[in-house]
UniProtKB/TrEMBL annotation, chain A:
PANTHER family per UniProt: ALIPHATIC AMIDASE EXPRESSION-REGULATING PROTEIN (PTHR47628:SF1), PTHR47628
Alphabetic keyword roster: Signal
Protein name per UniProt: Urea ABC transporter substrate-binding protein
Cleavable signal peptide: 1-30
The keyword Repressor is annotated on this UniProt entry: no
Pfam families linked to this entry: Peripla_BP_5
Source species: Puniceicoccus vermicola
TrEMBL record, chain B:
Keywords of the record: Amino-acid transport, Cell membrane, Membrane, Transmembrane, Transmembrane helix, Transport
Entry's localization field: Cell membrane
GO molecular function: transmembrane transporter activity
Domain of life assignment: Bacteria
Repressor is among the record's keywords: no
Pfam families: BPD_transp_2
Protein's name according to its UniProt entry: Urea ABC transporter permease subunit UrtB
GO cellular component terms, A-Z: plasma membrane
Mode of membrane association: Multi-pass membrane protein
Organism: Puniceicoccus vermicola
UniProt-listed InterPro entries: ABC_transp_permease, ABC_UrtB_bac, BCAA_transport_permease
Family note: Belongs to the binding-protein-dependent transport system permease family. LivHM subfamily.
């Protein structure tokens, strides 16, 4: 009763202010004390724009939802959207601008590991708070970052477990030449060895340093690589004795060339399944989905999840897309995917943490988050952990011709574990 | 895929009618359907056992139904809360908006209402039937075991080899039994290979030695791992029988022999892949060999001409999809239309570029570099505005997707096509240059424009047409690249370096040089890849080209015509 009265009073006041402002010919800006600034730091131009623009959209959607519902601690959220332009040093600059100039309470952003690594020192220096939503290689835990992203044990490890259970015992590792695939594959190599898979059953090649220590496993191709003939011949040879699978950490466009060549080499999903870690529904919009039928994906959310929470989320997001007033917003043919949902979850987790802490103060919010906050998101319940990661469900899906995934396996409440390297010992 | 299924179905029906087995089949099918229904309704171990038992029925419908089940096409239809649900199969409607129809698994009949029309089932009463986790794992085994008795020869051979590679003790007798009855040579071979691999693990010592010999004689790549594993087991002392030194030597020899066979196939395969990469480079560079090589225009927008060709291929696909709706016919034929269409579109764009920018810069190559670079940036942004930032998808017709395998070397149809396509374009260009009056005037204008003009050749027009032709060739490259990767605004950027590399290394102004350097670079790149990996391999090729140009600055065939100095 009391609260709704305050709400009424506030909306009346805001309305009065707006009309007064309009009357005076001023900018219709709400009272400073009535809003809380929140940063959105994604690439809206450049090579990563294709993926990251969707995250901006879903963040704005979440903020609109919360604002319509009365905001956070009685304050409306004011999103400050900045463009990292797929330029990593620029990310650091923009992060500093958000923290120092705009004094945002929290920032949601970054996609690539390199952009995260370049803003990390900024957030630590100015004591900011960043929510990072995209699956990553782990081996990092900043006091100022919350990783809603899938850790390696919430994507790669369950996927390998699934393949092992299906009777696969030979694994070919292939990825794009940068930190995420390299690190993930090193962790996977260790994990596979711990599961009793001998080194000779790991395809793609190993590189060792002078002491004989393995420093890299798998084959890597540059961003935008299109010639996969030789690699396919190698995979075919590797898979000739049966029960092999491919672990694919290729990013972006190269996947088109990879899967076209895969089909041309006469390989099939039944014979040699490929599990991809960087292909979600959003990427399928620019991939030949029909060439990928039967291939596997592993994420903490699929658009096809058959739950009331997800149905509501998808429907609301689609409605929002039609009516929202955002520059350059693509309205048609939109899908939802795991990084989007983890961005969305992040906003709500932050809101709950602020409410628990009763303050926007970064340190108080972080300790509230560390104490364990749960949110029933579209992909199931997520809970923050003390180590700044999330406990969440993990799903394995098989690709359908329409670019959606059919869930064929799920693991509930998987604890996020960032530091895996060195934790598996060989049998 | 679909057509293949139909063909096997037709063969099956034909064979059955031929041998008068139709009534047997009906009995088999009824039994299989009954087991399927029970399996779908049960769970856990019982379900697994029922699916396993399906492998003993001879009904050809079983693999299809297992696939449907796995794909979530089978639903449980609850008519009445007190009665067991009925498993039904969904037949999705072909046209949008129409409702799916359903057939009962137990007899395959479509569910109809009283008037005889297919009944639209209430989605509230449907629940997807999901096979259990353990059950999914026996699916493939069941399907393979069933495939051992299918009439399709290649399916049967595949299944025989796959089951043998499992080295499963229980399957070995079944394979042996089959090999005594089998008459198809292809299947017999597969069975022998499969049995040999299986016996390496489970046979007596004599059988093991015999298997080692068989695998060696067959050059069995599939069996190599099993042989190596046996070798490891012997070293570690896990082998079922101790081998004498002589026998060990025999095993080692078998491994070495297969490995040397693999290295031969690798070599031939690498040559083929190198040729195909060379052909791609050649197609990409040929247009540049004309505009840069012959005309001396440093056209930095050449990559965008390639992208225009690729977008034109995308447009023709969309046109065909609109005109013929999204049919197989449209998919299979649009590509034939896309080839001339892309050539014409890119040539027209080249023509416009020449008239508006390049014609003023023939005497100023450095300025043409800057101007065309600007044009390329404008075009890239233009693509983004028109087609959006996301990449566009061009589908490959099925005749470009398959492959043929000879001696364990895979020849992809798309790669064979690109080699043929490159040969055609090179021959066509050569004929145009050397056998037509137009070619003669091109050569005249390029060698000495003033003299050509004095002889009455309209050099402006010839230059314009030549540039348009070179751009058209870039368009053709675009059509082909759309079949390898996706079409995006940056497509040209990734190939412009390659194109200049090929033309410069071949000797500017020389088409034969372009051909040889493209093939040379392609083969070297593919040969280095397995040794150094794709990244280092590429770097080494680049270094090699730089060193080569230090040694022979003019390229392979230094040009003596209109030069760039």
């Amino acid at each position: 009763m009391h609260q709704s009265f305050r709400k009424l009073l506030r909306s009346f006041r805001a309305g009065a202010l707006v009309s007064a402002g309009a009357l005076l010919g001023l900018h219709a800006q709400a009272d400073e004390d009535d809003t809380v600034k929140v940063g959105i730091l994604h690439s809206l131009s450049g090579t990563m724009a294709i993926s990251e623009t969707s995250l901006r959209d879903v963040l704005l959607f979440a903020i609109d939802e919360i604002n319509a519902d009365g905001g956070v601690l009685g304050k409306q959220i004011e999103p400050i959207v900045v463009d990292g332009a797929s330029d990593w040093p620029l990310f650091a600059e923009k992060a500093k601008q958000l923290l120092v100039q705009d004094e945002v309470a929290v920032t949601f952003g970054c996609w690539t590991s390199v952009s995260r690594k370049s803003v990390l020192p900024v957030f630590e220096e100015y004591d900011g708070l960043l929510f990072y939503p995209v699956q990553y290689e782990g081996e990092e835990q900043s006091p100022n970052i919350f990783y809603t992203a899938e850790a390696v044990n919430q994507q790669a490890i369950p996927a390998v477990d699934f393949l092992l259970e299906e009777g696969r015992d030979k694994f070919y590792l292939i990825g794009t030449d940068y930190v995420y695939p390299q690190t993930t594959n090193l962790v996977l190599l260790e994990y596979l060895l711990s599961k009793g898979i001998p080194l000779r059953n790991i395809g793609g090649g190993l590189r060792k340093d002078a002491d004989g220590e393995v420093i890299s496993a798998g084959t890597y191709t540059p961003f935008g690589h299109t010639d996969y003939q030789q690699i396919m011949a190698d995979i075919k040879k590797f898979a000739a004795s049966g029960d092999a699978a491919v672990i694919n950490t290729i990013n972006g466009d190269s996947n088109v060339a990879f899967f076209k060549e895969y089909a041309a080499a006469g390989l099939t999903a039944e014979e040699v399944p490929v599990v991809s870690f960087s292909l979600s529904e959003d990427e399928f919009r620019s991939l030949p989905a029909e060439d990928l039928v039967g291939q596997l994906g592993c994420w903490t959310y699929f658009m096809s999840l058959d739950t009331p929470e997800n149905e509501e989320f998808v429907a609301n997001f689609q409605d929002w897309l039609q009516t929202a007033d955002v520059d350059g917003l693509e309205r048609d043919g939109r899908v939802t995917c795991s990084p989007m949902v983890l961005s969305y979850d992040g906003v709500y987790l932050w809101k709950k943490a602020v409410e628990k802490a009763g303050s926007f103060d970064v340190d108080k919010v972080i300790s509230a988050l560390e104490s364990g906050i749960s949110f029933d998101g579209p992909g199931g319940t997520v809970t923050t952990q003390e180590n700044h990661h999330l406990t969440k469900n993990v799903y394995i899906g098989e690709t359908l011709p329409d670019g959606q995934f059919e869930v064929i396996e799920s693991f509930d409440d998987v604890y996020g574990e960032p530091f895996l390297k060195g934790t598996f010992s060989e049998e | 895929m679909k057509s293949r299924v139909t063909i096997t179905l037709i063969t099956r029906v034909f064979l059955l009618v031929l041998f008068g087995l139709a009534s047997d089949l009906r009995a088999d099918e009824a039994q299989a359907r009954q087991i399927l229904v029970e399996a779908i309704l049960s769970s856990g171990k019982e379900q697994t056992a029922l699916v396993e038992s399906l492998s003993s029925t001879a009904a050809p419908i079983v693999p299809d139904y297992l696939e449907f089940w796995k794909r979530g096409k089978i639903y449980l239809y609850q008519t009445d809360p007190d009665v067991d649900p009925i498993p039904v199969l969904e037949h999705e409607a072909e046209t949008e908006g129409e409702a799916s129809t359903y057939s009962r698994i137990v007899d395959g009949e479509i569910i109809v209402d009283e008037a005889g029309n297919p009944l639209v089932l209430d989605p509230e009463k449907m629940e997807m039937a999901r096979p259990g986790r353990k059950t999914r794992r026996v699916f493939t085994m069941t399907v393979d075991l069933l495939a051992l008795s299918t009439p399709d020869v290649s399916d049967r051979a595949d299944a025989a080899l796959k089951l043998g590679l499992k080295q499963d003790k229980d399957i070995l007798p079944k394979l042996r039994e089959l090999s005594s009855k089998e008459t198809e040579p292809l299947v017999i071979e597969a069975l022998e290979e499969g049995i040999a691999v299986s016996m390496l693990a489970h046979g007596s010592k004599e059988e093991q030695m015999e298997s080692i010999q068989v695998l060696k004689d067959r050059n069995s790549i599939a069996g190599l791992d099993a042989l190596k594993n046996l070798r490891h087991d012997i070293n570690d002392g896990y082998a079922p029988y101790p081998l004498t030194e002589e026998e060990k030597a025999e095993l080692d020899e078998s491994i070495a022999s297969i490995e040397s066979y693999i290295s031969v196939t690798d070599f031939v395969g690498t040559c083929f892949r190198g040729l195909s990469l060379g052909a791609v480079l050649l197609i990409v560079a040929l247009g540049l060999a004309i505009t840069f090589g012959l005309m001396g225009v440093i056209n930095m927008a050449h990559g965008e001409m390639i992208a225009i060709g690729a977008y034109a291929a995308y447009i023709s696909q969309q046109i065909f999809y609109t005109v013929f709706s999204q049919s197989t016919f449209a998919l299979e034929t649009y590509f034939l239309f896309a080839i001339p269409f892309s050539f014409i579109v890119a040539a027209l764009c080249g023509l416009v570029l020449e008239r508006t920018v390049i014609q003023f810069l023939y005497k100023r190559p450095l300025e043409s570099l800057l101007a065309t670079w600007g044009v390329s940036l404008i075009l890239q942004q233009g693509f983004r505005l028109v087609f959006g930032a996301a990449n566009r998808q061009v589908r490959s017709p099925s005749w470009l997707l398959g492959n043929v395998e000879i001696f364990d070397i895979t020849f992809g149809f798309n790669r064979i096509f690109v080699i043929g396509f490159a040969i055609l374009i090179v021959v066509g260009t050569w004929l145009l240059m050397s056998r037509t009056p137009f070619g003669l005037s091109i050569r005249a204008v390029m060698q000495d424009p003033q003299m050509a003009a004095a002889m009455g050749i309209r050099i402006n027009r010839v230059r314009m047409m030549t540039f348009a032709f070179g751009s058209g060739l870039a368009g053709l490259a675009g059509v082909f690249l759309s079949q390898i990767g996706s079409v995006g605004s940056n497509l040209g950027q990734s190939y412009i370096v390659d194109s200049f590399m090929v033309v410069v290394a071949g000797g500017v102004g020389n088409i034969v040089g372009t051909v040889i350097s493209a093939l040379g670079i392609g083969v070297t790149d593919q040969a280095l890849q397995p040794l150094l990996g794709p990244v280092m391999g590429r770097i080494c090729v680049l270094i090699a080209i730089i060193l080569f140009l230090q040694w022979k600055p003019g390229g392979l065939f230094p040009s003596k015509s209109r030069n760039l100095d």
